[in-house]
Design goal:
The complex is a heterodimer of chains A (92) and B (571).
Chain A lengths: L1 E7 L17 E6 L5 H7 L7 E7 L2 E2 L10 E7 L14
Chain B lengths: L19 H12 L12 E6 L12 E7 L6 E7 L1 H8 L5 E4 L9 E6 L2 E6 L8 H12 L4 E4 L2 H4 L7 E4 L5 E5 L4 H7 L2 E6 L12 H17 L8 H5 L4 H7 L21 H11 L4 E4 L10 E5 L5 E3 L4 H7 L8 H14 L3 H13 L8 H13 L2 H6 L3 H8 L6 E2 L2 E2 L9 H9 L12 H6 L10 H20 L5 H7 L1 H15 L5 H21 L12 H4 L13 H4 L5
Parallel strand pairs in B: 5-10
Antiparallel strand pairs in B: 1-2, 1-4, 2-3, 5-6, 7-8, 7-10, 8-9, 11-12, 12-13, 14-15
Helix pairs in contact in B: 1-18, 1-21, 6-19, 6-20, 10-12, 11-13, 12-15, 16-18, 18-21, 19-20
Classes of the chains: A mainly beta (92), B alpha+beta (571).
Chain lengths: 92, 571
């Protein structure tokens, strides 16, 4: 198992103990090695329909299908907080 | 200004169809000696609204200001969104060119423009005052409907971090052509205000109304459907400061004078926190505020004091970051006060945040000490020696204090993206004609991917990408459209077509997407030629040494792009 620290933003904060901005909204979970970001978010109880395109695993821009090798920090923004250009990304 | 006269003349034929940055560049390149002193009699200060400014095209109310920069020593163009831009076009003006310096020092003048013509008079109010007071007096005298361009006390002192201030839609002195010290150039010319009164002005001539309407509607549709620019979308809801949390997650939010890429207090000064304060404190606080009437993105805000009264407009991403994370400050009210003081004194928030961070690194205050940062800012308005050093920018302050960690290119402090974590923006910072400037080529996204990702930072394509962005941006800066339309038009092809059609409709041209790239390239090459004549070589297209030596957490990356790769950008 790996430790994963999920930082949620915007309206996704409501899936954590701290729904208000101004301090981190975090879910700590343990997931098996090789779990994808999508699977981890589902396990954490985050509504997948509301997840946007800005997803960062340990600071790297990532897709929902990226497998997590070594835990760490996952940052996820909702679909009304998309900010980065989409058109020439190939996500990890 | 030498003879203290003002006159109107026809736009030279060779400048036909040029606007914004293309037009300010044209005047500067044709008429300014590249080796002149930026604050001397041979520099010229040029104002030019964009090609479609003043029309019903969405988000098109921008004006460019150009000159040789006292901060970089090269060519400079900075632009702002303001009703002033639209009013100038409605009065029939393509540009204002300010020449010479007055013989008499210590006096200031104001240029008044209305449908009857132009007049240069002595400016008697607001000298040495904060800009909110100065603008208040002018609106009282000339009417609330006029547009005002001006300098603050920093510009009067001819300091290189001074910007040119324009009024916003509600008459605040808050919209800046901020970067590169253009306010100091205006100060050197003794020009305190330009006041435009468009009462009785005609509508803008549009050569092909059908094409224009078709184009602007396509563009408006793209802007109102794209996630980032639509009503209730990212920019409208959270403002540009939505980027604070995003860049922090990406590990590319410069923290404590570019020592780290992630700030533990980021959430406290984020776009979400601004929105929450506006909602909780109520009163004057609002997000989704427009900087000029034609804007449909509306990404500005009005930040309230705790009691709901107005504190400042606008806390945008760059200003928020500059005074917040970059100074280690996590108190949003302190950030708001620092932005307010910048606006009141007529300063560039990016350069000033960068300068205070360098001053903190040099031991003048602890990182995170907002109260001390506010005290330092106040020195500028007092005109004290410390204030004059600080308002000369980060490089001068770094030299004065013996700081080696000065994140600047061509003398201009870097904005809010860490080039060690976001490699491609580093190409732009290093090679831009403007000095370190994110708006000259916003290559952020693929570069975030570039952090150890599949986009190899050494890949030759990165230099092509940086070049492509810089050229397209140069064209957009000439249209009068806000750079933020790029989000929508680069994602939605019909939006891009609509942008080009709207320009063709106004001008009667038949440009295509290829012409956008061609004209953009022509503009950046013209700027490169000016800088070359001013003495710039490839050795000026370089990153500061400390970035090659110091690893940036959390990615623990140095700037590892060889100089030879930077030289490929403009090959």
């Amino acid at each position: 198992m790996m430790k994963l620290e999920i930082h949620l933003y915007g309206r996704l904060r409501r899936f954590t103990d701290n729904p208000a901005p101004g301090k981190p909204s975090v879910i700590n979970i343990d997931v098996p090695r090789g779990t994808t970001i999508r699977e981890a978010l589902e396990k954490a109880g985050v509504s997948m329909e509301e997840v946007g395109t800005n997803i960062f695993l340990n600071g790297r821009y990532s897709s929902l299908d990226r497998a997590i090798d070594d835990g760490g920090r996952l940052g996820v923004f909702p679909d009304d907080m998309n900010l980065l250009y989409k058109w020439h990304f190939t996500k990890e | 200004m030498e003879k203290l006269t003002a006159k109107t003349e026809n736009l030279p034929d060779k400048y036909k169809n040029r606007g914004g940055r293309w037009l300010t560049d044209s005047y500067v390149c044709d008429e300014v000696d590249p080796n002149c002193h930026p604050l001397g009699p041979n520099n010229k200060l040029v104002f030019a609204p964009g090609m479609v400014t003043g029309t019903k095209a969405p988000s098109s109310g921008r004006i460019s200001v150009g000159a040789k920069s006292p901060l970089t020593g090269g060519i400079k163009e900075a632009n702002a969104g303001t009703p002033f831009a639209e009013q100038l076009v409605l009065l029939g003006y393509s540009a204002i060119v300010v020449e010479g310096v007055p013989k008499e020092k210590g006096k200031y003048w104001q240029l008044e423009i209305d449908k009857k013509g132009v007049n240069l008079n002595e400016a008697k109010t607001g000298i040495g005052d904060v800009l909110s007071k100065a603008y208040g007096e002018l609106f009282k005298k000339h009417g609330k409907h006029v547009g005002i361009a001006s300098i603050g006390s920093a510009g009067e002192q001819q300091l290189a971090a001074a910007g040119v201030c324009f009024n916003d839609i509600d008459g605040r002195a808050t919209r800046y052509a901020g970067r590169g010290g253009l306010g100091a150039v205006m100060g050197s010319k003794g020009l305190k205000y330009i006041i435009v009164d468009d009462k009785g002005a005609k509508e803008v001539e549009i050569k092909d109304k059908n094409l224009f309407n078709k184009g602007r509607q396509k563009l408006a549709k793209a802007l109102t459907t794209h996630d980032i620019t639509k009503k209730g979308g990212t920019l409208n809801s959270y403002g540009t400061a939505a980027l604070i949390n995003v860049m922090n997650e990406a590990g590319g939010l410069p923290t404590r004078n570019f020592r780290e890429g992630r700030f533990e207090g980021a959430e406290k000064v984020s776009g979400e926190a601004i929105k929450e304060a506006c909602e909780k404190r109520g009163g004057a606080g609002m997000t989704g505020h427009p900087c000029h009437a034609s804007c449909i993105i509306q990404c500005s805000n009005v930040y309230p004091y705790e009691d709901g009264t107005e504190h400042v407009s606008c806390i945008e991403y760059e200003s928020d970051w500059a005074f917040g994370p970059n100074c280690g400050i996590d108190n949003l009210d302190h950030v708001a006060e620092l932005v307010r003081l910048s606006n009141e004194y007529g300063l560039d928030t990016i350069e000033m945040g960068g300068t205070i961070a360098v001053a903190m690194d040099g031991g003048l205050a602890e990182f995170g000490d907002g109260e001390k940062a506010i005290e330092m800012m106040k020195e500028i308005h007092k005109g004290s020696p410390l204030g004059k050093i600080l308002a000369s920018g980060a490089v001068t302050t770094g030299k004065t204090l013996g700081v080696t960690r000065v994140p600047a290119c061509k003398g201009q402090n870097m904005p809010a993206y860490e080039p060690r974590a976001v490699k491609g923006i580093g190409y732009v910072y290093a090679t831009s004609t403007m000095g370190a400037d994110h708006t000259s080529g916003y290559t952020i996204a693929p570069e975030i991917l570039g952090v150890g990702g599949s986009a190899d930072p050494l890949d030759i394509d990165k230099s092509a990408l940086a070049r492509g962005f810089m050229d397209t941006t140069a064209f957009l800066d000439s249209t009068g459209y806000c750079l933020f339309i790029a989000f929508a038009i680069l994602d939605i092809p019909e939006g891009f077509d609509g942008m080009v059609e709207s320009v063709n409709g106004v001008l009667g041209t038949s440009w295509t997407g290829d012409d956008v790239a061609r004209i953009g390239k022509e503009i950046t090459e013209m700027e490169r030629a000016f800088n070359k004549a001013a003495g710039f070589t490839k050795h000026d297209d370089r990153m500061p040494e400390f970035m090659k030596l110091e690893k940036l957490p959390p990615h623990n990356e140095v700037w590892n792009v060889p100089d030879s790769e930077l030289d490929k950008v403009f090959k």
